[in-house]
Design a protein that fits this description.
Structural class: alpha+beta
Radius of gyration: 30 Å
Helix content: 25-40%
Shape: elongated
Distance between the termini: 82 Å
Mean pLDDT: 83
Number of strands: 10
């Protein structure tokens, strides 16, 4: 009958509208997820932009009642050439940049570096035992193994870079 046919068409149209609404919701969710993924990728790329990064930082524990120690690290520069001008910490009166060299007569000499240390473009500045290091002078409290020393490195271009330096008896191994 014609009346029955119209009812079937009406039911079919209703189901199609429901499917269309459901399909629209699915498409909307897919678009939102795609946008979220693009934002995440954009932020990841932005966070990995070239610049100064610190790796393998560590400081020696202070011995007995001494109020000096040393800190070491690798400063990796993925950007343009820069200069490390200074370092500071709330827990230390002064942090001096020192270089250790061997004299002609075989004596190790340590000297304070004035004017900063260059960090080459696409290169690295290494602070290591027996070489260039950060001398921690006037510790306000002992450095104990397992602790941490908050430090701020001041660069000419990159500005202030905060570092948390673990206190260890030996250099970190990979």
């Amino acid at each position: 009958s014609i009346h029955g046919r119209r009812l079937e068409v009406s039911v079919l149209e209703c189901r199609m509208r429901r499917l269309t609404r459901l399909r629209m919701v699915e498409i909307g969710v897919a678009v939102l997820l795609t946008l979220a993924a693009l934002v995440f990728i954009g932020l990841t790329v932005w966070a990995a932009e070239p610049g100064i990064h610190v790796a393998d930082a560590w400081a020696r524990p202070s011995l007995g009642k001494t109020n000096v120690s040393a800190a070491y690290m690798n400063i990796v520069n993925d950007g343009e050439a820069d200069t490390l001008n200074s370092a500071r910490s709330e827990l230390v009166e002064a942090i001096e940049m020192h270089q250790t060299t061997m004299s002609e007569d075989g004596v190790m000499q340590m000297r304070k570096v004035e004017g900063g240390l260059p960090v080459p473009a696409q290169g690295m500045l290494a602070f290591a035992p027996g070489g260039t290091h950060l001398m921690l002078v006037g510790l306000k409290q002992p450095l104990e193994e397992g602790g941490e020393l908050p430090m701020t490195l001041e660069f000419e271009r990159a500005g202030a870079v905060d570092v948390r330096v673990p206190v260890k008896a030996t250099a970190p191994t990979h």
